[in-house]
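Task: encode each sequence below as structure tokens.

Item 1
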Amino acid sequence: MSETVISSFILRFTQESDADLPWRGVVRHVQSDEESRFTRIEEALRFIGRFVDVVGDTTTAGHGGQRMDARPHEMIGLDGEE
């Protein structure tokens, strides 16, 4: 029987009250409690890639990461649409 590996992440986006300022984000890996701040989504994906193979390259996932075949642009958006 195969073992299910779960990696969960929390992404938080913030913007100062002055709307001219850019959005900033924090991504947290729930299982390890590690987090990383980012201003570009590629930085968040790089952090996630340490735990899960988000681009289909099994050589980049660390910590026993699980392969995800979807490319970032193919993942379901926040509104639930592909």
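Item 2
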Amino acid sequence: MNKNTNTIFWKYAGLTTQFFFAVGLTVFIGIKADKWLHFTTPIFVWLLPLTIIISIIFKIIKDTSSKK
């Protein structure tokens, strides 16, 4: 691997780590919020990670798009 390939690899490895950590954290927060609010349907378990996934997809598109 040359230096440029190595830099790109670590950039995407960092994005992947952020993605999994954010999704895991929001699932945990969603579980706690649903229990605290006594919801029988896991509303926050679905909404919080979905919001994070959408925002991370937009961030990845913005970071990887060609800059003109």
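Check on item 2: Residues 3-64 form one domain. The mean pLDDT is 87.
End of task.
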